[in-house]
Structure formats: C-alpha cells, structure tokens
Amino acid sequence: MSNLNIGVAACSYFEGHFLFAFRYFELAVMFGSRNKTIAKHKKMKKITSKVMYLGVVFIVLNYLVWFMNHGVYRRVTDEGYNETIEQWTYYILPTTFLLVDCIILFAALVWICHRLRLNQNARSNDKWMAVHFSILVVTLVSYIATLIS
Q1: What are the C-alpha distances in Å from 88 to residues 91, 117, 137?
Q2: Which domain holds residue 55?
Q3: pTM of the prediction?
Q4: Rounded (10°) CA dihedral 97, 103, 108, 111
Q5: How far apart are CA 93 and CA 115, in angstroms?
Q6: H-helix or E-strand containing 2?
C-alpha cells in the first residue's frame, strides 16, 4: 500500500505545480493582452483549457504507469519492477514536468512584469511568483542532480 501512497503524493505534487503555474500563465495572458475583449478571452480560454486538461491527464497517466509497474508487474512476474519504466516514470518525466512548470511560470512572470510594469495594483503577486519560481528551480536542479548521480 505504500507504493500507492507514494504515487498519489507524487502525482498530487506535480499536478499542483502544473495547475498553479499554468493558471498563473493563463491569467498573465488575459491581463497582459492588448486585445481585452470578451470574445478574445473566451477563444483563448478554450485553447488553454484543452492544454491544461492534456497536461493533467499526462501527469496522471505517468503515475498510473508507475503504479502498475510497482503493483501489477511485481505480482505478475515475481520480480521487483521494470527498471526502464521506473527510470522514465519516476525520474525522467517528473523532471520534465518540473522543467515545463519552470518555463511556464517564468514566461508568465516575464509577461506580467513587462506588460503591467506601470500598474502596481495588477503586479501585487509578482514577488511571490518570483519566490515560487526560485523554489521550483532549486527543486528542478535537485531532481536533475538525482538523475545524473
């Protein structure tokens, strides 16, 4: 049962970061856009919603494969787990998820700071976003160091 707990915790961790970074990016695009019509916002929302759902499904599928590798593969083969699947689902893809989160959050931060640099009320969260981005970068570097070693 501990494998299930590890998988759920890791999946929730990466889902949370992805949703936070992507929603901030979506808001940055909405507030920083020069064309602020409702029709344009609805069109962008359709596109970004599909991308967001795709990202969520991809992360969940990754951890379903990881869990199947640990839970089902072990019972079927009487061995441990498949090392290749473990490497991809527990190290390489999660590191890629963090890299994507960092890129999305950085793009949103730059977009907000550039487009709304004169509007201090709209930029109230940019310092906290920069702190979150910095912590994500530290986490990413530690994941990469784990992958390399």
Answers
A1: 6, 41, 20
A2: 2-148
A3: 0.80
A4: -160
A5: 32
A6: helix 2-32
Rounded to an integer, what distance in angstroms lies between the CA atom of residue 76 and that of residue 9? 25
Q: For the chain, what is the domain count?
A: 1
Spatial distance between the Cα atoms of 25 and 108, rounded to a whole number of angstroms: 4
Closest CA to 29 of 126, 140, 131, 109: 109
How do residues 86-130 score in pLDDT, each as one tens digit? Answer: 899 988 999 999 999 999 988 888 887 777 676 666 566 677 778
Q: Which long-range contacts (CB under 8 A, 24 or more apart) does 133-138 make?
A: 133/102, 133/105, 133/106, 133/109, 136/17, 136/21, 136/98, 136/101, 136/102, 136/105, 137/102
pLDDT band at 56 (very low <50, low <70, confident <90, very high): very high
From residue 68, alpha-carbon distances to 38, 76, 83 in Å are 44, 11, 13
